[in-house]
Every structure is written in C-alpha cells, then in structure tokens.
Amino acid sequence: MNNGDADDGFHPPTTGRKYRPVVDSDRAVLEMSSIDPGSSSSASLPTQQSNFMKTNVGPQVNMTPGASQVEAPANGEANVPVKEHKLELFGFDSLVSILGLRSMTEEEVAAPSSPRDGDDGSLMYERPRGNDIKLGTMMGVFVPCIQSILGIIYYIRFSWIVGMAGIGESLLLVAFCGLCTFLTGISLSAIATNGAMKGGGPYYLIGRALGPEVGVSIGLCFFLGNAVAGALYVLGAVETFLKAVPAAAIFKETITRVNNTATPEPIQSPTSHDLQIYGIVVTIILCFIVFGGVKMINRVAPAFLIPVLFSLCCIFLGIFVAGKDKPAPGITGLSLGSFKDNWSSDYQFTNDAGIPDSEGKNYWNFNALVGLFFPAVTGIMAGSNRSASLKDTQRSIPIGTLAATVVTTALYFCSVFFFGAVATRQRLLTDRLLTATVAWPFPAIIYVGIILSTLGAALQSLTGAPRLLAAIANDDILPILNYFKVAEGQEPHFATFFTAFICIGCVIIGNLDLISPTTTMFYLLCYAGVNLSCFLLDLLDAPSWRPRWKFHHWSLSLLGASLCIVIMFLISWSFTVVSLALASLIYYYVSIKGKAGDWGDGFKSAYFQLALRSLRSLGASQVHPKNWYPIPLIFCRPWGKLPENVPCHPKLADFANCMKKKGRGMSIFVSILDGDYHECAEDAKTACKQLATYIDYKHCEGVAEIVVAPNMSEGFRGIVQTMGLGNLKPNIVVMRYPEIWRRENLTEIPATFVGIINDCIVANKAVVIVKGLDEWPNEYQRQYGTIDLYWIVRDGGLMLLLSQLLLTKESFESSKIQVFCIAEEDSDAEALKADVKKFLYDLRMQAEVIVISMKSWDVQVEGASQQEESLEAFTAAQQRISNYIAQMKERAQVDETTMLMADGKPVDLNEQQVEKFLYTTLKLNSSILRYSRMAAVVLVSLPPPPVNHPAYFYMEYMDLLVENVPRMLIVRGYRRDVVTLFT
Fold it and tell me: Judging by DSSP bridges, how do beta strands 786-791 and 937-941 pair with one another?
C-alpha cells in the first residue's frame, strides 16, 4: 500500500465546509490504533494460551505445536517435563487436557459466558463450590411451581368465579387458561433442554433465543409482573387475615348490600385503608426476610406447602360432608339441583368488593373473568428460575413444570364441579371465603393455609424479582441498569429496595381486582415471548437446535403464542396496548442505548435463512433494470500513501454513499495485501477488522474484505472473479485515478491500471474511476454547479443513473444535469438532440441536452488561444510518447530483434492511430474545459485500453483527458441496461 505518494494531501474545495485531511490525531486513526489484533475471533495461539493459563485444571500446558513442557513460572523455576500426548501430531494438546475434563473426573466445566463488548470470548472454568445445594425435580421444580400456582385466587376468588360464570363457562375458562400455560410449558421445556441455563429464568431463555433487545424488554416487563404479583399476594394475605380476625381492623368495617337490600346476615369486608396499612407493614417485614438471604427462604419454603395441602384436604372433606354437619344458609351439599342451577352464567354488576349490586360500577363478563383467573395458573416459571440450583436442568424442568401444570389444572376442573354443586349461586357470589365455610373439620386451617400460601408466594416474588433485575443488569446491555449490578454470590440489595418500592406502590392501590389484570398482562407477555422463541428456533431448525425434550413442534408454540395474545386482548385491549407499547419503548431504548451482545440468537439464524431464500429467489439470471441496484466494489488500495492506520481514502466512503439512493444498497470495500498467504493471514485479519471499523466510522453500509496476493494485479484478478454470491456479486468497480504515477515516476502503475480495467471488461463489470477524489464533497459541503455528462458511448444508462443518484444527496441536490452528446460534423444535431430529450423524458429524468459537433480528424486544432491549456498538455504528451517509442526501438536493436516490446509483451505499434487517439482526447478535453469549467462534477465515458498499445500510452491518453478538470467521474458501463423506459 506504500507506493510513495508524496503529495496525497487533501485540498479544501471551493464551496461548503472545509475538508480537513486525515492525520494521526484523527478520531478514525485513534480508533484504528486502539484495535487489538488478537481480539478477533480467530485469535493467535499465544492469545489462546494466555486465556487457558487462567484455568485451574491441571498443569498449565504450552499450546505451541509440538510443545511438551510446562511454561516456566514467573519465579524463574525450571521447566518440568510432562507426559507426552498422543494427539501431538495434530499440533494441539489433547481435547481432554484443553477442556479440563480429565477423564470425566469431578472437575466440571462451567457454562461459557456470552461474548460482549470487551470480552475476548475465552473459556473460563471453575470447580463447583462445595457448599452449593443441588435440588432434584420434586423440591427444585415441582414444589415451587405448585406453591406459586396454588395461591390466593383459588381460595378467595375461585368459588366466586364459578358463581358468576357458571359451571359450563368455568370449565371453559380453566381449559382455556390451562391450555395456554401447558403449551408454554412445552415450549419452556424445549428451550431449557437445549443447553445449560444461567440465572435470569425466562429472561435468559428469551434473550438467548430472540436477542438482547427482545430479552431485555420482555425481561423488564416480567420483572414488573413479579413485583406487582408480590403486592397481589400481600393484599390477599392481609384480606384473609382481616376476615379471620375482624377485631384487628383499625378502621370501621364496611357493610355491603346485595341488590340494594340489607341481607339477613350483613356481609362485611375490610376497608381499603386497613388493606393499605397492613399491606405496607407486611411488605416491609418480607423485605427484611429477603435481606436475610435466599438460603433461609429455600429451607423454609417447603414448610409453606404442608398447610396448603392440609387445607385442600379439609376443603374437599368439607364438600362431601356439607349440609349434613352444621348446615349453613346457602350450603346445599353435593346437590344435583344446585349443579343444574349453577350450570349457566349469571354476569352482573358488582361493587368494588365483588358483591352483586345493581348500582355497582364493575360489570363482569367472560373476558373480565379471564383476567381475574389467569394469575391462578401462572407460576410455571418458578422451577426455571431455580435453574442454577438444579442437579439436572434438562430433566427436572420439563417433568416438574408440566407435572405441576397438569396437577393444578386437574384440581381446578374438579373444584369447578364441586363448588358448583355444593352451594347456591347467591352463596357463591356473596361468600368470598366459601372454602373456609365448607372446610371440615378445621375451618380455621383455611385461613392459615391462605395466609401461609400467599405470604410464601409473595416471598418468592420479592426474592425472584430482584434477582431477575440483577441478571439483566449483569448482562451489561442497558447502561441505566448498572446500579443494580451485583457481584457473583452477593445479594441484590439495591434491586430489592427498588422491587419493594414498586410492591408498596401497588399495595397502596389496595384493590386486588384492579392489580390482577396488570399482573396478567406482564405474565402473558413473558409466556408469549417463550412460545415465540421456541417457534422461531423450531422453525429455523439450526444445527445447534437439539433439545432433549422431543415432544414439541413449532405449531404448538405458535398456538401457545397466539393464545397468549388472544387472552391479552380478551382481558382488556387498553391494558394490552399499554403493555405492548411499554415493551416496544424498552426495545427501542435498548436498540439505541444498549450495548451489543452477540448471543447467537434465533433472529441471526432467521436473517441467514432469509438471505439464503432471497439469494435463491434472485437466481443467477440477469437482473431486470427495474430491480437493478448498484453494488460497488470499492478498491481501497490507493495509488500512494495514506496516513498511518487509515486503511481507506476517507472520500471513497463518501463517494460510495453517493451511489446509493437513501442509503439503500451494499458496498464491498476490498484491499490487497502483498505477500504470502500463510505468512500474512493474521495481518490480513487485523487489516480487515480495521477496515470494517473505519467503514462504520464513516457511516457507510458495507462489508470489508482483505485479500493476500503476490501483487496487486493477481489479487484484483482473483477478487473480480470470486467476490460476491449469485446476483449479489458487485457490478461496479470504483477506484481512484492514479494522478501521481508520473510525478513519482511509478513505472508499475500504468500496467497495473490497464490490467485492472481489462479485467473488469472481461469480467463484465462496470467501472467508475474518480479523478480529484481529494476534493470530493462530503455530506456537509453543498455544491451549486452543474452535473455535466459527456455521453459518448452507449453504457446501458449507467452514467444517467449515477447523475440521478447524485441528485438525491444533500451536497448535490441544488445542482442541475446537463447532457452533452458528441456528434460528427455531418450528423443531424437537432434530430439527435430531440431523440435524446425524448429518451430522457421517458426515463423520468430532467436534464438539459447539448449537442457538440466534432470536426474530422485531419483538420488541425483551431482556436488555439482558447485551448492553450489543452494544447500544452497535448504537445507534452506527444513528446513523451515519441521518446517512449524511441526507447522501445533502441531496446529492440540492442536485443537484435525487430519486435517492439512493452509491458513484457510484443506490441504492433501504429503511430498514426496513436496520434488519432491523442487528437480525440484533446478535442474532448478542450470541450470539457470550454463548457464545464464551473461544473460541480463531470462524467465522461471511459475509453477501453487499445489493443497492442503500451499501458504507458493509455495513461497518456487518460492524463490528457482529465487535464485541468478538478473533479471527474470516468464511467464505463457493462453490456446490460440499468434503466428502463417501461413501468
């Protein structure tokens, strides 16, 4: 890349903001300098060795091929020989030694962390701690799920739901909600058995499947759902306590009425102030317990299940003996008449306490009951949240989660029949604690069971929600969450304070029926994310998708996700829109402010599959002009020297953006590294990363490629043949004009330049050569001149299309297009002008058409006073060509041959044709200087290199063509139309 450009500085243009040349202190140069060559994915062996030196598994083995000794320690001790490995033939240590598995001993490999910004992706291993408690399926998954599912809704709301919806629609309600959670459990089982799980529960699964943006947005919503659910459980426990001990009420009890008439036995319900005060106190107490540590919670949690199971037994025993032992008003016992009376629904208005009231503000229907009941089937994530404490996550999570779902759903089905047949509808609607009324032999155990169950569930919510927030913060995706980060093994105290603050805020609301739908939305959003994750992974079926749980299908996951969305809209379309909007805002914020986290998510696989399908649909046939996009191959290797660590001329990226309409399109930036591939492979990877970083810095959509070749000609020939895939191969080669070749006496440039052009012609690639690249305007430099096109040969409309693309950029939007048509002296200029104008009109292009007549070749140049600059260049070119011909003839005489040699091959020189080319170029250059001296940019057709002419002659023709033109695009199309007249 160092061809010795002594005057490659960037001169400021005449208009717009001044362009500052790239220097060593430039931001881009600093970015290039900060790149660590070893940070790429293909790290060198010494880098890998340093990473493995961090492991604590066995001796530290040198990773250099053929090494058989441990590296010398820092204290200077002698190397100790180790056992020779049988796999040394392959140049690496044995796989067992590298991974530290050591013949399947107790040393266990930890799950590798996700690569992130600044992470080198090295594998770090550690022994499991000796005091870690590993749980099985029963205590690790099944019991937590049962505890979370069987809660306050079942005890104090389910009999009321049966009375309001009737037995028939209650069965439909249970089946509908149970099917949703069962399908979600299947999706959860599939994803959880596809690899090791870390902390974060569903956030971890969704984030690794759908990407960090989706994972963080749904994870934060799930965190809010858990925090709000804590308030739900606290309010349920307090309400139950005040029902059981009315004397504990601080404020006067509220007496509710049924149908505007006082009932014989007034129905009492606690006031909202009592719920608020006691709820806040209970929440604070639970927070102190949470601060005590999760170990104590895990030890006490199973004890909460015993009163719950005992209370369930009392409820069902009481249902069988109801009506016989201590009969109560409205309790009929298991009666067929009550079953028939309660079969149909009886939706009506109720007051805030849920008591039927014709003047009540709340009207209940099936959709509202779905929102009220659905929290009773949530809690299936309780097992997956404990994944770090499970012995075998891939066995325990599917079995425990689905078993808990089936058991609780069956319990709900049975309860619908029993509740509907044991009491009258009025009793079902007015007795909010019917379970305690029918319980036998100890009705008080129901109150104890409700309180312990709800407090245990609240404790789990206040324990799980902070850890979920801490897991999101520890992934370092969203900088605003850095306050909630915790070190491994530490308690998330700050996150617990924040969770308690949200929980207390919801407790102050004091209405259980208003909080329940809010919690439902966040849970449903999380369940939909789990189902969509499994759907995407199952549909794409990537090679890494190999879950041990085989009983899944993408259609089931899609059905589960659809049910979640349907239930959300059934409950409340307004709450649904708000929750989706909140998740969308978080997603947008994460995509803007979040850090990149490459977790190998399913969307990357989806993009890959979509790209393959799109590529196959494009095929390999010729692209229709209506669908033609410029795919420029930007040749970054300069004809000269660039500032250190700047891999590409800064204005090449600006020009590449000018070839795209509204930024749409792809550019391929390529450079060539001279040398042997085996020796320069690592240097090429580093240079490729530098070039890619520079492209991003210049805000240009494109990819970077570095090719190692013995020289530039061979490297470019390989690039032009192989770069791209199918119809996504580059169709335009863009490079800088070598203005310095004569000034620096670089004799190899002419042959290389001509060879590149000939390779493009053979490969059927269009060519755009930029002269005056240093003065090319950036996006801030507005141009007010014209865009002049010297349309000499048919190029498929490429020159016309390039001019239109330039007009779409802010720097050229004030310019106008002029088309100059070169015609012979005896041609009909007016007819040619009319045809061109009609052609441009059909192409929807506005341009002024000017026809220039060229005199015959044997007429001497006239108007020398007006073309003095061109004549001077013309005379100098003639003299240099004559000297070159003389040198060729002299070499031929020295070699005792009559054959003239140039560029290592014989040439058949026709001096008259050389003179003709010079005159043609002189006329064109003089016309450009006459008509386009003030143009913003000039576009002219690129003449092909003449056969049997030395490359030196062609460079003389080109120099004469661009002489004194500050900014020019030399364009050659290919044998395809890029514009069309038809719609």
Answer: parallel
Beta strands in 689-777 (DSSP E): 702-709, 732-736, 766-771
Per-residue pLDDT at 79 exceeds 60 = no
Q: Ranked by mean pLDDT, which of 121-130, 517-526, 847-856, 936-945 comes out on top?
A: 936-945
pLDDT interval class at 72 (50, 70, 90): very low
Cα–Cα nearest to 527, from 377, 369, 400, 398 = 377
What lies within 8 Å, CB to CB, of 904 at 6+ separation is none
Length, in residues, of the chain: 983
**What is the reported pLDDT for 293?**
65
Pairing relationship of beta strands 362-363 and 349-350 according to DSSP bridges: antiparallel
Structure confidence at residue 854 (pLDDT): 64
Q: Which helix (H) or strand (E) holds 418?
A: helix 393-422
Q: Per-residue pLDDT averaged across 246-269, rounded? A: 60
Decide the pairing of beta strands 766-771 and 732-736: parallel
Q: Are 334 and 320 in contact (CB under 8 A)?
A: yes
E strand intervals along 837-891 = 848-854
559 to each of 182, 366, 563, 688, how far by Cα in Å? 11, 21, 6, 45
Token code pair at residue 429:
């609607």
In the Cβ-directed half-sphere of 583, how many Cα atoms lie within 13 Å?
24
Taking only the tens place, the pLDDT of each residue in 845-897 is 888 888 887 654 344 444 444 457 677 778 888 888 888 777 777 776 655 55
User: Does 170 or 512 have the greater pLDDT score?
Assistant: 170
Token match 């006459």: residue? 930
pLDDT at 15 over 60: no
Helix 202-210 to helix 212-244 angle (10° resolution) is 160
Q: Tell me how far apart the alpha carbons of residues 430 and 328 are, in angstroms, rounded to a whole number.
A: 13
* β-strands 632-635, 349-350 pairing: unpaired
Kindly indicate the confidence band of residue 899, based on its pLDDT and cuts at 50, 70 and 90: low
Which tokens belong to 254?
């509220």
Peptide bond preceding 517 in cis form (omega within 30 of 0): no
- pLDDT for 647-701, tens place per residue? 888 788 888 877 776 656 678 899 888 889 899 999 989 989 988 888 888 888 8
3-class state of residue 789 by DSSP: strand
For residue 721, the one-letter residue type is Q
Q: Among 188, 133, 106, 104, which residue's Cα sits nearest to residue 391?
A: 133
Helix (H, G, I), strand (E, B) or coil at 941: strand
Residues 6 or more apart in contact with residue 670 via CB below 8 angstroms: 633, 634, 635, 636, 704, 705, 706, 707, 719, 723
pLDDT higher than 60, residue 80? no
Confidence of residue 558 (pLDDT cuts 50, 70, 90): very high
Please spell the DSSP secondary structure of 209-263, one letter per residue: HH-HHHHHHHHHHHHHHHHHHHHHHHHHHHHHHHHH-GGG-SSPPEEE-BTTB--
* CA gap 193, 548 in Å, rounded: 5
Tell me the pTM.
0.66
Sheet holding 702-709, edge to edge: 702-709, 667-674, 632-635, 732-736, 766-771, 968-972, 937-941, 786-791, 816-824, 848-854
> Distance (Å, rounded) from C-alpha 142 to C-alpha 136?
9
Phi, psi of 400 (to 5 degrees): -65, -45
CA atoms of 68 and 54, how far apart (whole Å): 19
> Beta partners for 791?
821
Q: Tell which residue, 979, 573, 980, has the closest CA to residue 803.
A: 979
Nearest to 328 by CA among 437, 440, 442, 431: 437
Question: Which residues, at least 6 apart from 188, have a Cβ–Cβ distance to it below 8 Å?
Answer: 202, 205, 380, 381, 384, 397, 398, 401, 530, 534
